[in-house]
Amino acid sequence: MAPLQNYHVLADEFFTNRPTADIAQDLLGKLLIYDSPAGQVGGYIVETEAYLGTEDPGAHAYQGKHGRANDPLYSEAGSIYIYAIRGFYAFDVVTQANNEPQGVLIRGLEPAIGESIMRHNRTRPGFELSNGPGKLMQALNIHDTKMNYQHFADSSIKIIQDYAKIPRQVAQSQRIGVRTAAEWTDHYRYFVSGNPYVSKTRKRDIDFATYGWKTN
DNA sequence: GACGAGATCCCCT
DNA sequence: GGGGATCTCGTCT
Description:
Layout: H1 20-26, E1 31-36, E2 39-51, E3 80-85, E4 88-95, E5 102-113, H2 115-121, H3 133-140, E6 157-160, E7 170-173, E8 189-192
Antiparallel strand pairs: 1-2, 1-6, 2-5, 2-8, 3-4, 4-5, 7-8
The structure holds a DNA duplex (13 and 13 nucleotides).
């Protein structure tokens, strides 16, 4: 797909007034684009996780934890929260009202715009390009938290409502790397079933014909 | 492939 | 100093 100039950013209402788990599922198939210095890059969201704020033992804001690092989570819906994790960076969309620190982690991206730039940014073969939260940030060439607090309406990174794909089937699982006392209740990871850019996908589970999208 | 160890680096309501 | 919402590589099937 050629770089896009005309599109509509997802409205604030998309990111509030309903459960963050629903928002995480609805983000699957949406196009994320980034106007990077090297040109526009982007792809379809294929994997997300919902983090449910102060009551969620897996969340950064569990029990009201609030510091400089996770303060963006407390800002308005549709804002950007980037954080460092073991030498990598990961990307959240903030959901819900101010001071309600919930968000959705973007964990997998199927490249659609500027793939050659992305493969220059991260020289790993095949689906290893962007099948994980730290990997996709490398592919986008984002290596800092400077875009924290920015809102999609006026950021160089955004999620748009145009050109979205529809998953044939949304699967869910426990969140990755999250250890809580209630793992059996954790089903807040969502992904496009059969898509190869979903993290930890086994080759035999890939749907090579459709990548898990509805085709009609 | 599956698994596990080690790297790495920012943050510390 | 210790701990992550991770990734890579070596080792073993």
